[in-house]
Design goal:
globular; Rossmann fold; about 40% helix; about 260 residues; alpha/beta; seven-stranded mixed β-sheet
């Protein structure tokens, strides 16, 4: 089965992504720095600045990896929770900072184990592109955000210009293949990135989806000439009854 076929369906992508990130967890920070020309942390600092965090904020960082965004958010926010589907990522995050203000949870973004309206800010770095069901992920984020809460996401973009998109994919494919072969003995390991971008709707379409699921002021901040993007959106102060979430989640995070 080819990589493209493996991630062509939600179930296939779910299985592939879980296996992939368990495989690359210990090299994840190196890869993100390498593929971003060393700018990854600067982009994440920019996202945190744009969040305008307050001491009263309760932050949820999704697909938190080894904790870059989470640890940058707390402080200035009083507390934050990091969630990732890959337990090894959270072990590495805990090695960086073992702090009761930043509990770490192994769970799926598509079924968040938190009560409605629990958080005032949700952040994610490279999370939305990797979920097998983007619509469900946005519904869950809207559900756990309190009215007036903010969503901020950093991710690769899918350039509109066909020539630029082709060159971008070619660079990521060649570089990813060489890295995968050198680090894991498998060229497909990091070829997942350009393949995931092929299936990604792109920053503008994701912003439109945010609006569709009830977010307001959704907009895109281009990064690296538009090859990357930061999404910013807010949950309205009042949500119409017909847009309220219907899922009943029995698990809740203890009060922070």
């Amino acid at each position: 089965m080819t990589l493209r076929t493996a991630i062509a369906t939600p179930d296939g992508k779910r299985r592939y992504v879980r296996h992939l990130f368990a495989t690359i967890a210990d090299r994840y920070d190196f890869i993100t720095r390498f593929l971003s020309y060393g700018q990854d942390r600067r982009w994440k600092r920019r996202l945190i600045e744009m969040a305008e965090l307050r001491a009263t904020d309760r932050v949820l960082d999704l697909a938190c990896g080894t904790g870059d965004l989470l640890f940058s958010a707390v402080p200035p926010a009083r507390t934050g929770v990091g969630l990732d589907v890959t337990h090894r990522m959270l072990q590495l995050a805990q090695q960086r900072r073992n702090d009761p203000r930043t509990p770490l949870v192994t769970a799926d973004m598509l079924a968040l184990p938190f009560g409605d309206g629990h958080f005032t800010v949700v952040t994610t770095g490279y999370g939305l592109r990797n979920v097998p069901d983007l619509d469900q992920a946005l519904r869950e984020i809207a559900r756990v955000l309190a009215p007036g809460g903010r969503l901020l996401s950093l991710d690769f973009n899918r350039p509109d210009n066909p020539m630029l998109r082709g060159a971008y994919h070619a660079y990521l494919t060649i570089t990813g293949s060489l890295l995968g072969l050198a680090l894991h003995g498998d060229p497909d390991t990091y070829r997942y990135i350009p393949e995931s971008i092929r299936n990604y709707p792109g920053a503008k379409a994701v912003s439109q989806l945010m609006t569709h699921y009830g977010f307001t002021a959704a907009h895109v901040v281009p990064v690296l000439g538009g090859l990357m993007a930061i999404h910013v959106a807010a949950k309205p102060l009042a949500t119409p009854d017909d847009q309220l979430p219907t899922a009943n989640h029995s698990q809740h995070l203890p009060k922070l």
